[in-house]
Amino acid sequence: MANAPSVFDGVTSTISLIVLLLEFVMLRAALLRAQVRLYAAQSGVVSLLAIVIAYEKSLPELYILAVISFALKALIVPWVITRMMTDSETEIAGSGALGVASEVILSIIIAVFGFFAVGALHIHSTVLPTSALSFAVAVVLVAFVLMIVRRDVVSQSIGFFSLDNGVSVASLVVAAGLPLVLEVAFLFDLLIAVVVFGILMRTHHRHVSSLSTADLTSLRG
Amino acid sequence: MGWILIVLMVVPLVATALSAVLSGLAANLVTIVAGVVSFALAISLIPTVGDHPVTAGFLRVDALSLVFLLATSFLYAVVAIYTTGYLKAEEREKTPRDYRRYQRQFLAGMNLFAWAMLAAPSVNGLALIWVGVEVTTVVSAVLVAIDDTEAASEAAWKYVMIASCGLGIALLGTIFMYYAGAQVLGNSYDLAFADLLHHASELPGTPVRLAFVLAVVGFGTKVGIVPMHTWLPDAHSEAPTPLSVLLSGSLLAVSLYAILRFYQVTVATVGATFPQRVLLCFGVLTLLLAALYLLEQRNVKRLLAYSSVEHMGIMVIGVSFGVTTAMFGVLLHVLVHAAAKGAAFMSAGSLVQGFGTKALSRVRGALSRMPWTASIFIIAVFALCGMPPFGVFRSEFIIVQGGFEARHTTTGAVLVVLVVLAFIGLAGATIRSAASGEPDVSRPQAGEQAAVHEAAAWMVVPMVIAILALLLLGLWLPGPLATLLHTGAGQLSGVSYVG
């Protein structure tokens, strides 16, 4: 049993897998509110992953990071988006360009591609099993699918924020020791981005009186 | 000399705070002073930085950074003057209360945007550059939407969405670069250039290659590299003119700067062949598509936006040649493109404001109605096409020369052909409209003003300054500036890592 994976490897791989599964559930969720809740859950899971690593590898600064990212991504951002949806009081269900089944199948193909493509790179981390990195890349790719096939500003924003979660997992795998200052700067950037997304959502809603992006076709060529 | 960097970082922030509370001419003057002071500070750094980098805390400016700082601060100064006239023209269309709010938001946003673009090339480290470029994105996205029309809101949404995704990819690239560095430098370093370049030859190849490609795709989204350029014509054409100038002349270049930093590390790690091939593919594709789009454009601001895509393509191809001559041309091109694009966008914006339309077909008889603006517009467009004696001709010539020097004969020839194609599109559209003689009064359109007259001096003066700068760089390079460009080119082509 010399080569059997440790408990830590199993736990971290499972947590990364949960992040990916939540991304898939997000793809299926028709109701916008459900999507925001799923994003909050996903952010919570990413923070949990940071705590597990901090405990196992004795990297105390990761605790701070986990707390900040939980407060920001699992509480503040979802709250801001929910507030904005309440204000706009329009449709509560997003619309997709494809059927749900086709979306999921497409995402599975893309996620599998990402998973094995990363495996071929032979990037080995001292912190986490390589499979976690593959999951992270799959999350990023599926988030792209979510952004491309959905046609409302809330889903597209959530897609981008969950892409950021995927990048966070990747950074925990290959760059767990990244100085805290930089990590916090990244998070701070996300916060500013959320505010900007919010402003633009309001502007968009005022002009089009819906949250759909299907009408954004006047600028071409 | 470190204090100069700190002052350079503080001045635009102070201007942001002041312009957020002041109103009227005072706010404009604060912005102008901040722009001029920034430009003066950047110039004062030239002799020192041509010799060795200047550092202060986490700020570090070497020859490569300073070229981009010069381009940004120059545009900051002229656009600040131009904005005074631009806002006066906007004032006529708004109620006093609305206008005061609009002016405060506009100027505070513009100062903050300028600060972010000055900060990005001044920080020391790949991760901090990413943060800087991200800040420029979010600030400029709000500014694109400031005119509050449906088209502006659409353009802003596309911009923030596509650029954010690009930066997500660039962040992934930054993280892989950190991973590569951590294999050699241990886990608690901060991606500072000097360390990374010093140990570059020991880094593992695969993660560095991956990081480079992700950085090119990610930051390339903001540079306007095809196929990630789709937001660019929308944002640049719907944004208010002063912002279009900063977006085209400066922001694209600042994003290119981020790619160049990754390029430096990658060349030192895996050799020049791989990164140059990547850049060559993207560069040729960018130039080709931009040239084709230029033949088709009828909207004056979109025309200029595609011209920016074309010039970014030229720069990326120039970098892919890899020799010092070509790098010198690219760095000079950053400066001349900023000046030319500034003049072109400012004059085009005045034409749009004067004639009340963005369609080139409606801008008729401009030379007799707005002689200064129309003349400058025509001169700027021809300068952008690479006509001597202006700076763009010189820099493009040097880039092509570098291409032949590096034995990239085919690419050099393709470059020349595509630039000629772009020339036909850009110059043709301009000659058909702005330079055509007779005012077209037979078909007045809704929203057009009956009597079109010359733009205010506030707007004409900065255009003239930009044209003069362009002429100066075309005819004569001041000694210290030439030294600076040579040092920067040496850094990029791997002659000297730290210069």
Task: Explain the overall architecture.
The complex is a heterodimer of chains A (221) and B (499). Chain A is an all-alpha fold. Chain A contains seven helices and no strands. Helices cover 75% and strands 0% of the residues of chain A. Chain B is an all-alpha fold. Chain B has a two-stranded antiparallel sheet. In chain B, helix 4 packs antiparallel against helix 5. The longest helix of chain B is centred in the middle third of the chain and has 36 residues. The two termini of chain B are 16 Å apart. About 2% of the residues of chain B have low confidence. Chains A and B meet through helix 5, helix 6 and helix 7 of A and helix 5, helix 6, helix 8 and helix 9 of B.
Quote the distance from N terminus to C terminus of chain A.
62 Å
Low confidence ranges of chain A? none
Major β-sheet profile of chain A: none
Cross-sheet strand order for the largest sheet of chain B: 1-2
Rg of chain A (C-alpha, Å): 18 Å
| Strand-pairing-aware structural class of chain A | mainly alpha
* Count of individual beta strands of chain A: 0
Count of beta strands of chain B: 2
Q: Count interface residues per chain for the largest interface.
A: A-B, 42 and 48 residues
Q: What is the averaged pLDDT score of chain B?
A: 88
Radius of gyration of chain B: 21 Å
- Structural class, from helix and strand content of chain B? mainly alpha
Sheet with the most strands, sense and barrel status of chain B: 2 strands, antiparallel
Gap from first CA to last CA of chain B: 16 Å
Helix content of chain B: over 70%
The arrangement of helices and strands of chain A along the chain is HHHHHHH
Number of alpha- plus pi-helical segments of chain B: 19
